[in-house]
Amino acid sequence: MFTGIVEELGEVTAVETLGDASRFRLRGPVVTEGAQHGDSIAVNGVCLTVVEHEGDEFTADVMAETLKRSSLGALTVGSRVNLERPTAVGARLGGHIVQGHVDGTGEVLARTPSENWEIVKISLPADLARYVVEKGSITVDGISLTVVEAGPDYFTVSLIPTTLALTTLGVKQAGDPVNLEVDVIAKYVERLLAAGQGAGR
């Protein structure tokens, strides 16, 4: 489990196509400290498994399903990525419960700068809109954020200078894809309510 508090901005150093999958090599001095084969690291919000680790770099295999459902397929050598290690049991939950299981992708629609923060508008797939509410939590490229406005096919988030400086959202422009993970609690509640209604018939 992750919390959506990005630990560092990493970089893609190599991409190898493996037929129906890809192997990425990524640099991240913070997240690779003490890393072992089989460990999990979230890359732009996608939970990946460490295959190899050498120095401040690690490799991870990404299957076709993940490439199709996330924006990882658009990464190239030199791309910056948000990196986070799983949270330790008993640690502070700085963001919200993040699984690293991307629900879909959105697109940056607009950026509205202000003196001390910036509003970013992001498109929202129709099948995810019901899980996104004003002042609720959403994960964008692995970043735990609070929804400012929830529209029928978009939402907005407000970014503080720290988020702009230390994550990929500081440089994403209109048209760029982003990974989205909605609040898992909302999905469980929906499923339970549906099951309860069916049992009462």
From TrEMBL:
InterPro entries: ATP_synth_asu-like_sf, Lumazine-bd, Lumazine-bd_dom, Riboflavin_synthase-like_b-brl. It catalyses: 2 6,7-dimethyl-8-(1-D-ribityl)lumazine + H(+) = 5-amino-6-(D-ribitylamino)uracil + riboflavin. SUPFAM superfamilies: Riboflavin synthase domain-like. Pathway: Cofactor biosynthesis; riboflavin biosynthesis; riboflavin from 2-hydroxy-3-oxobutyl phosphate and 5-amino-6-(D-ribitylamino)uracil: step 2/2. Residues 1-96, 97-193 form the Lumazine-binding domain. Lumazine-binding repeats lie at residues 1-96, 97-193. Coiled coil: none annotated. Its EC number is 2.5.1.9. One of its GO terms (molecular function) is riboflavin synthase activity. Keywords: Repeat, Riboflavin biosynthesis, Transferase. It is an enzyme of class 2 (transferase). GO terms for biological process: riboflavin biosynthetic process. NCBIfam families: PRK09289.1, PRK13020.1, ribE. Homotrimer. Catalyzes the dismutation of two molecules of 6,7-dimethyl-8-ribityllumazine, resulting in the formation of riboflavin and 5-amino-6-(D-ribitylamino)uracil. This is Riboflavin synthase. It comes from Streptomyces actinomycinicus.
